[in-house]
Every structure is written in C-alpha cells, then in structure tokens.
Design a protein that fits this description.
elongated; alpha+beta; single chain; about 45% strand
Length: about 100
C-alpha cells in the first residue's frame, strides 16, 4: 500500500485546518520583540519567553483600540486566533485584544 503524497500546499492546508480548529483563540503572555510598524498601521512582532517565540500580527483597527503603544521589551498578554500563514508555512497569532502585563 502506497502512502499518501501531498503537495506542499495541500500539506500546509491540512496543518492549517488542524491548528486553527484544534487551538482556536487563546490568551498568551510574553515579551514583545522585533516590532515592525507598517505604513498601513499593521504591526508585526514576535512574542517570546525563555523557551519559545510566536509571530504576531496586530491590525491597525485593533492597535488603535488597545490604549497603549506596544514596544520592544514590553511584557504583554494578548488574545486571538492561532492561524497558519500559508505562503511562509508559519503559524502566528492574530491579535484581537492586548493588555500590558499585570493589568
């Protein structure tokens, strides 16, 4: 019996379905690093702790509503769905809410 062979796109779609359905939206805490602001208002950053890192995207409308300016080195807690960005085969969190740590 021959094993299933996937294209890269098919495998990435399968992984995306599993992650997005299995993990869903979560709260996660960490430190902001590598923050990059786009002219469009979108903010990209890495959320990290001592053992791992997670790519994050903060859309302009959410950034305008959080009440503070995110910065490198800042400890935060954020909420959103974990998704897969297929063109790069990477998972990320799409920030829907963000709080400074300790609030």
């Amino acid at each position: 019996m021959e094993a299933q062979t996937y294209t890269v796109t098919q495998l990435t779609q399968l992984i995306r379905q599993k992650i997005e359905a299995g993990v869903g939206s979560v709260w996660v805490a960490g430190e902001i690093s590598n923050l990059r602001r786009q002219a469009s208002g979108i903010v990209y950053f890495t959320l990290k702790d001592a053992g791992a890192q997670l790519n994050a995207i903060l859309f302009a409308n959410v950034a305008a509503s959080i009440g503070f300016e995110p910065a490198d080195g800042q400890a935060v807690r954020l909420f959103g769905p974990v998704t897969v960005y297929a063109p790069q085969g990477k998972y990320q969190i799409v920030v829907r809410q963000m709080e400074q740590a300790g609030q």
